[in-house]
Design a protein that fits this description.
Distance between the termini: 52 Å
Number of strands: 0
Oligomer: single chain
Shape: flat
C-alpha cells in the first residue's frame, strides 16, 4: 500500500470514528444506568434470588405468576393507569394554554415565564410539604369547598381514599407545568405569523385560529409531551412517597411504590418481575400515543 493510499485510509477511519468518540460518554452512561440494569432485572425476574445469602435458583415465570395473583399488584396497576389518565390531559392542555398566553407581546411577559417555571426548579421535598399544607383539613382550600357546598365538612384530600390519587396527580401536573410550557412555547414561536394574518383576513376569530392553526401546528409538541407524561406518570414515586406513602389503604399505591416495597422487604426477584411489567407498560403506552398522533402529523406534513 502506498503512503498516499495509507493516509487516505487513515483519514477515512478518523472521519468515521470521530462521531462515535463524541457519543462514547453518552453510550457509557446509557449502558451503566439503563441497559445493564434492564438486563439484570430480566435475569433476576426468572430467579429466586436471596440478596443476603447471595444465592439464586432458576424459577422461570413463577415470579410473574406470583405478582399476577397478588391483589395489591393489580390495585397498584389500576392506580398507575388512573394516575396517567388524570395527569395526561392536564399536562397536554394547561401548559399549552399558558404557552399561548405568555407568547403574547406584553411588557411583563418575561416575568410570567419565570414565575410559571418556578415549580420545575422547586425541590420536590418543598413542593410536597407545600401541597400537604394546602390539602390539609384546616387549609383555605378545604374551607372554600365547604362554603361552596361541595362537601359538608372539611377534609384532608391526601387522607381521603376518594380524593388522594387526584390530589397527588395535581401536584405532578403543577410541578411539570413550566417544563412542558417551554416545549409548547418553542413550537409556537416557529409558527409563521402569515398563517394568522391570512386567517384574520378570512374572518377567523381567536378561538378558530387556535383550533384550526395553533393546535394542529403544535402536534409534534403534543406528541412529545404525551409520551413524556406517560413515561413519567407510570414511574411516579417522589410525590406519593412524600405525601401519602401509598395510602390511605393503598389508594395511591402505584407500580413503582409496589416495586419499592418489595425491594425494601428484600423480595428482589418479585420486584424485578414487577419492574419488567412496568417497562412493558411504558413501552406499550408510548407506542399507542405515538400511533394516535402520527396520523395527524402526517396530515400536517401533507
Amino acid at each position: 500500500m502506498s503512503k498516499t493510499s495509507f493516509t487516505q485510509t487513515k483519514r477515512k477511519m478518523i472521519r468515521h470514528l470521530t462521531p462515535w468518540l463524541f457519543l462514547l460518554p453518552s453510550i457509557i452512561v446509557l449502558m451503566t444506568f439503563l441497559i445493564i440494569p434492564i438486563i439484570e432485572a430480566f435475569r433476576w425476574s426468572v430467579l429466586d434470588y436471596k440478596i443476603i445469602a447471595d444465592t439464586s435458583e432458576f424459577v422461570g415465570l413463577d415470579n410473574f405468576k406470583e405478582i399476577f395473583s397478588d391483589d395489591m399488584f393489580w390495585k397498584a396497576f389500576v392506580n398507575t393507569i388512573l394516575f396517567v389518565v388524570i395527569v395526561l390531559p392536564m399536562n397536554i392542555f394547561l401548559p399549552m394554554i399558558l404557552a399561548v398566553l405568555v407568547n403574547q407581546k406584553l411588557r411583563t411577559v418575561g416575568l410570567f415565564r419565570v414565575l410559571y417555571y418556578v415549580p420545575v426548579v422547586t425541590p420536590i421535598v418543598v413542593t410536597a410539604l407545600m401541597w400537604k399544607m394546602l390539602y390539609s383539613q384546616e387549609s383555605l382550600l378545604s374551607t372554600l369547598i365547604v362554603k361552596l357546598g361541595i362537601v359538608d365538612s372539611p377534609i384532608n384530600f391526601l387522607t381521603n381514599s376518594t380524593t388522594a390519587l387526584i390530589a397527588v396527580a395535581f401536584i405532578t401536573a403543577w410541578k411539570g407545568l413550566g417544563y412542558y410550557m417551554i416545549m409548547y412555547l418553542a413550537n409556537l414561536q416557529s409558527i409563521p405569523n402569515q398563517l394568522y394574518e391570512s386567517a384574520s383576513i378570512d374572518g377567523a376569530n381567536g378561538i378558530q385560529q387556535f383550533t384550526k392553526i395553533t393546535m394542529p401546528m403544535l402536534t409534534p409538541s403534543i406528541t412529545l409531551v404525551s409520551v413524556l407524561t406517560i413515561v413519567n406518570g407510570l414511574k411516579v414515586f417522589e410525590e406519593i412517597a412524600l405525601t401519602t406513602n401509598g395510602g390511605p389503604a393503598g389508594a395511591t399505591t402505584t407500580l413503582v411504590m409496589y416495586i419499592y416495597d418489595k425491594f425494601v422487604n428484600l423480595d428482589v426477584s418479585i420486584a424485578s418481575a414487577a419492574g419488567i411489567v412496568l417497562l412493558a407498560l411504558a413501552i406499550i403506552g408510548s407506542l399507542i400515543q405515538m400511533k394516535l398522533t402520527s396520523k395527524r402529523e402526517d396530515d400536517l406534513r401533507a
